[in-house]
Design a protein that fits this description.
heterodimer, A: 225 residues, alpha/beta, Rossmann fold, six-stranded parallel beta sheet, four-stranded mixed beta sheet, B: 484 residues, 24 helices, 12 strands, elongated, disordered N terminus
Chain lengths: 225, 484
Amino acid sequence: MSREAFLARVQQAAEQGRAYRVSHQELPPQIGYVGAAGDLCEHMALEINAVGGAATLVDSLEQARAVLGAYLTEVAAKSALCWQHPLLDRLGVTSFLQERNIAQVNYEQTAALDQPARRLAQLAGDIGITSADIAVAETGTLLVCSRPGQERVASLLPPMHVAIIERSQIVPDLLDAFALLHDHGLDQLPSNIALITGPSKTGDIELQLTTGVHGPGKWRVIIIR
Amino acid sequence: MKSSSPVTETDYIRSTHREFLAAADKALRTPSLQIILGQLGDTLGERNRQAWQLLPNSDLVRQRARQIKDETLAHLHEHLQTLEKSVQQRGGQVHWADDGEAACQIIVDLIRQRGATRVVKSKSMTTEEIHLNPALTAAGIDTVETDLGEYIIQLAGHRPSHIVGPALHLSAAEVAEILSVPAGRKLAVEREVLAGFAREQLRQKFAEAEVGITGANFAVAETGTIVLVSNEGNARLTTALPKMHIAIMGMEKVIPRLADLPYFLKVLARAATGQKLSVYTSFITGARREGETDGAEEFHLVILDNGRSRILGSPLRESLFCIRCGACLNACPIYRSVGGHAYGGVYAGPIGAVLTPLYDGLAANQHLPHASSLCGACQAACPVKIQIPEMLVQLREQLHHEPALKSRWENFAYRMWAKTLRKPWLYRLTTWLATRTIGRWYRSNPWLKKLPGKLQGWTQKRDFPAPAAKRFRDWWDQEGRHES
């Protein structure tokens, strides 16, 4: 009942309000498109560094593993939240972690657990290792979709988030990323998409930048050219 | 806390003209606050400008965002129905709330039905507007704000002083004092220590919470997607960990298409914090899907009117374009002097001076439309180019037509003024008298230091120019016309 009354009231107001519409102008379709000049990988890396992350450009999977190894050492990782993703498979993340005696927490292990136990395992992660669905060079943004095997918590709970991406995933502008989502079908939108642009930040105390308040304070991206 | 008087900062009060002046006066005498308010213009303002420069034709992008809002509002009822259908198709439920009280009741009922008692919230001005926290507390529901600034002011019992940075009125030392209470030890006055303590405390709360409550920066009608923008990541945690997610949105937050969204994202963070994009933008489309191990199992969307339909049909409809970025606060010379608490309502600054009278009643907030110099900085800073000064003037005009508010003294003065201007002989006589008396008395220093009676307010902080010793028409007759 209140729904009908609500909508009727809004309809009446919306129609009345048309008397006060603001003036419109014809806008070129490309308005708002910024894009990225030069090499997409380099531009992406530049932007990531500019927002307080750290990007490393590598030329091979071997080099990517070496960089990842250094990050694991940096946080003295005992357990890692991992996506299950083709790029991470090609990188051999599972065996890489095993060699270092680091517990891998991914979908296969946690799906079997009940919620409290799963949450405890996820909260204990020292590092989150993911890829991305799309990367945006203009802003240094990762677009990550949630689905079984691509948990939201991997890029969120641990103090360090490492994403490994490759050139084919990078688009110049946010508008390109939205076009891809469209092409994929709007009815196919996952339950959660996160755009990630930098380490977790706040300016809530005296307007001064403080990192790592809720999400990862350390944000690293390895870009395979 | 030394800088907080319980009357003006704890409770939502309607500030009166007198209270506004008192709070403004206090703010001007608080050096730590003045430093922060100054930075809103300097440091942050510079960051904003740089971010805008990196967006070619930024004015046209703002125009596009503005046009989308205008177009959407013209058919708002249709977009809301589309939104409802999309949310339901993805397993969510939609609730319609006529006012704040109804919205609070819906949310309390939903939490009770789930048998839950522990709630985490991510920052939402709409929940401030409907006074949700007191309603939850009264219902015995343990509610924790998780945005760092909101967490601090919740502990201190303050209300937000800025749309984006709710605790900006506090110095680091004051924050340390506030957080030291739950810590049970003296925390160092270092931002990293304080943020680290909050992270640790709130992680525990996130882990235990059964319900997450958020606002919505945007809601996409065609997909039923709720969009949340944050820098800390608390909005992501609030929607990823608890089993139930309740989002509340003012009905004007709907946008028709997903393709509309990037234009708003491109202007929102630039205007708010001088970033190209905020750190986290979450798109939540319904509850978690089969096989997923995080995200809420149950999703509810509460759509709030609370006076918005009244505004939608009025000349001040444009105020519904607001995307709550806070840019007009940072740009406003008044806000940057008096801070947020002087405004009394939930929304401070120039947009607050428009929204509070509209939501809460003009008569009760008659001083707010006057809390502006009409310099236009707010409109220039607004990412959707809302004509705030124009609206403030309209509100002032409405006040003038409000019979209950008319001051007999003021009416008398204006009537006399009108009469004088309508009759040339009376005008001539008046100016002749003024120049012959006051004009001549003050010939050497033509400034009045103190005006009599009701006019005293004007000269409290400045002088009033005295009439000239000679009328223009006399000068013209005697000298002016011969000079060329």
